[in-house]
Each structure stands twice: as C-alpha cells, then as structure tokens.
C-alpha cells in the first residue's frame, strides 16, 4: 500500500467568500462554461453538472430535465443506450470492453467499483 503524506483539505478548511455582483437575482446567474478537451479538441458548452449513473438518477427522464438546463446525465449501465443530447453512455467494466459498441456515443463513463484495479489501468 502506498501512503500519500501531502496535505489534505476537507470542507472545514475551505471558505467560499461571496463577491459583489451586478446581478439582481440568482436566476440571472449564468453557469454555462465552454470546455475544449485536450486530446480531441472537441468543445462542449454547458453547465458542468452530471447526474450520476445510479438506477434512479441516470435515466432518460432525468436527461430530458437536465438537458433543458444544459446539464449532463450519465445513463445507468442497465438501460439500453440511445443517442440523445447531453447523455453519457455508461460502460461497466464487468463486461469485455473489446466487444462493446460505443461508436455512436460522444461521451462514455467507465463504471468501475475500484478505480485502482489493474484492468481499469490497462484499458
């Protein structure tokens, strides 16, 4: 086991201080950002919030609601994938990755119980 000894922070160590704003209401705040991905040069503009790929949150119904607000949904891996805007296909590492079809997906989520497993690193 490797022990990392550098400083760790938690919520009690972080203070978010408000700053002055010209906005008159919180609804006027624009949370959208543009991201350019380093290795693909693909760009995406939206709110960087992703609904988890769990049974009750990674659904098509949630995707419809979040897409209206430019947010993303990681589809539950047990749902049959259909290409939709702002939908992330979840691929469980309990399957043979070489046999999976994810060519139609703009995004994929590799679902693994333990990110330190050698199988995950080899992919």
TrEMBL record:
Cited Gene3D superfamilies: Aldolase class I
Positions in coiled-coil regions: none
UniProt entry tagged with the keyword Oxidoreductase: yes
GO molecular function, one term: oxidoreductase activity
SUPFAM superfamilies: Inosine monophosphate dehydrogenase (IMPDH) (SSF51412)
Record flagged with keyword Oxidoreductase: yes
Keywords (A to Z) from UniProt: Oxidoreductase
Protein name: IMP dehydrogenase/GMP reductase domain-containing protein
Source organism of the structure: marine metagenome
């Amino acid at each position: 086991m490797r022990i990392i000894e550098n400083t760790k922070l938690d919520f009690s160590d972080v203070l978010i201080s408000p700053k002055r704003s010209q906005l008159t209401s919180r609804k006027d705040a624009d949370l959208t950002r543009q991201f350019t991905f380093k290795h693909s040069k693909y760009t995406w503009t939206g709110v960087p919030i992703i609904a988890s790929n769990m049974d009750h949150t990674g659904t098509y119904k949630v995707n419809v609601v979040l897409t209206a607000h430019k947010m993303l949904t990681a589809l539950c891996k047990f749902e049959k994938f259909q290409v939709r805007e702002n939908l992330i296909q979840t691929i469980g590492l309990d399957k043979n990755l070489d046999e999976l079809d994810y060519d139609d997906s703009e995004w994929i989520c590799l679902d693994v119980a333990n990110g330190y497993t050698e199988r995950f690193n080899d992919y």
